[in-house]
Known about the structure:
Blueprint: H1 22-36, H2 39-42, E1 57-61, E2 86-90, E3 93-102, H3 103-108, H4 113-134, H5 137-140, E4 166-167, H6 173-186, E5 194-198, H7 200-208, H8 222-226, E6 228-232, E7 235-239, E8 245-247, E9 256-264, E10 268-280, E11 287-300, E12 306-312
Parallel strand pairs: 4-12, 5-7
Antiparallel strand pairs: 1-2, 3-11, 5-9, 6-7, 8-9, 9-12, 10-11
Helix pairs in contact: 1-4
Amino acid sequence: MSLPRVAGHPDYSSLGTSQFIPVIWSGKLLTKLYAKNVLAAISNTDYEGEIKDYGDTVIIRTIPTGTINTYSKGQDLTFERLESPAVSLLIDHGRYFGAVVDSVDAYQSDIRLLDKWTTMYGELMANNIDTHVLASLRAGAHAHNVGSTAGEISGDINLGVAGTALQITKANVLDFIVDCGTVLGEQNVPKDGAWMVCPEWFGGIIMKSDLKDASMTGDGKSVLRNGRIGIIWPFEIFLSNQLPAALGSGGDAARICYDVPFGNKMGLTFASQFVQTKRFEPERTFGEGIKSLNVFGHQITMPEAIGCGYVRK
């Protein structure tokens, strides 16, 4: 029989305790975060090691565009002085959690409780951050990569617009995916590293359509890891429940409409770091507590490499 507990105090007597080493635990949290985090797969994270604290600014160097000149024999050459404009990645977002386990529960438990909490907190943190960043992609996309007149060159590709979301069916799901690929192609965005994030029902339509065989490419662990369902030209397709979704307007007033962002990893920079993970002893009870602070930043460094559809089921 376990020790009596006051009302509202959770019973962990059948769960467990943990050995707590901050650096190792922070590493586990970051691993869990990226295992469930879509952003780790659709963005570049080259600057993560430069994060030290909330409020840091990471300077990102971009590649300038040069000029190709026509040559005639004997002419004097003209040389460019290329400037590399810098983009600032501000680490301006913070998320934290804190938890306490009673000493009696820790003593009576038969597994490492805090290790189990690693998985739970990692997943919650991933969902929270995904929701935040995915909601910002439409606003940062290039003007020719959204709406009913998308396409830098063609200008007539319909990706859906407020009031007239594009209805996705088994008959047109391939058309939509290919149209999004065309939009990126007209911006001269490389196909290598292209991605698309879709709601779960969108993935269901893919699996019921003639694309179901194509969607099963890739490793067998991907769906369990971060929602990856395969590659359909030119995109690596991911599923997420964290995409912006709301009742539409106009003709879509009674329907839920969704953002479907797509792009290339070169267009989005994301960095996340658990900068503080500490053990502490609570003052008003026997036990041990943990608290951890994650800071992150995101920046669209190449708007022409980011687009967004607006769809409904």
